[in-house]
Design goal:
89 residues, mainly alpha, binds zinc ion
Amino acid sequence: MSAAREPKLCIYPGCERLAVPPHPLGGPQPAFCDREDHNALTAHRERLRLAALAPPGHGDELTTQSGEWTGHSPDRPTIDSDTTEGDDG
Ligand SMILES: [Zn+2]
């Protein structure tokens, strides 16, 4: 049974490269790939940039300011035009 660990991916936003393998002498595995521009600082900046690009109020679209409900038509009584009783004619 070989303790095969699943490969660790770079945590840089949008990066799908494998992270640098841990040092054979020990130590924690780096969380980023071997790209020099992928590190904690650039990843942090990238997250901020992506967050700035994202529309505000994401995931909170249920509340409307105008209070106008455009989901469906307002509740109307189901009146069928078939209430004419009596067939005197
Ligand atoms: Zn990367």
